[in-house]
């Protein structure tokens, strides 16, 4: 038995500041849950040492915080190593087709507001064959959460370059080096009008859980890019942000309402160039300390968030921001659609499907 609330959220309701209580339509669990409750009976089958294990453990450990009945949580995946994820979650789930997980999840979220819908995808699945579905889910602002595992390689098919592989990447499919310039997933998301955009790292359990918590609280589409190591075909791709000593100088931890500083004792900071408007990193001094940007994840304009996504060097990952880049209120597609359906019923009564299909533009052709 579950306790179901019947209040419908208004468009855009329940984003920043409202926490998990934003999920008002989803039935609550009646008993206290633990990570064990979200572990399925399936053997986890990834390569030993794969970063997917860490992400799975973080998600299973976080799920009890939602306080939702397991039968009202759904994980939808596409194709790839990460897309085995639904098998290992003791919830409902669907291992769908290549690149189409956002499309399937859109239909599910729009028709079933009582469900908490999560999409699991990889850089190849979501940004190659699935690129069209991803950008339109973000544009529509459907109420679902997308976890994009980015290992910058095709792992399941054994090591070909992916849409996020750096220029010059030598792989089985690019023996002389990749000629393609990589996608920046977060820049792409912001260009698609995404209302929530974040990045974390597979091995940073505390940070990843914090980002998942904020994504779950967001009403609308939340995209979380997760740097995930493929130790078989692209090992060490994220060493700069995973190694404790290197990360101190390479990682910029974004926190809403705080200055954007990093390095030993916050010795470096991000400022806006007065001439170009671009963001740059400078040593912090008494003279320029007041000019260091304060991060505003709730800024209606995506301009600064977009500029932050461009800071990292695509090859070395030096100066890589992680955390929530953007978290803003925007009308939610599911809510708008259901409101429109309610209005139509009130104005016209229940529809006649046969009359709709025949309409005024059909005729019978004599045999």
Considering DSSP H and I runs of 4 or more, what fraction of the residues is helical? 25-40%
Major sheet: size, sense and barrel closure? 8 strands, mixed
Structural class estimated from helices and strands: alpha/beta
- The averaged pLDDT comes out at 90
Give the total of beta strands.
Answer: 11
Q: What spatial form do the alpha-carbon principal axes imply?
A: globular
The CATH architecture of the largest domain is: 3-Layer(aba) Sandwich
Give the name of the CATH superfamily of the largest domain: Thiamin diphosphate (ThDP)-binding fold, Pyr/PP domains
The number of helical elements comes to 11
Strand content: 15-25%
- Give me the oligomer status: single chain
Q: Radius of gyration, rounded? A: 22 Å
**Which stretches of 5+ consecutive residues score pLDDT under 50?**
1-23
Précis, in short:
This protein is α/β, with parallel strands linked by helices and 367 residues long. It has eleven helices and eleven strands.
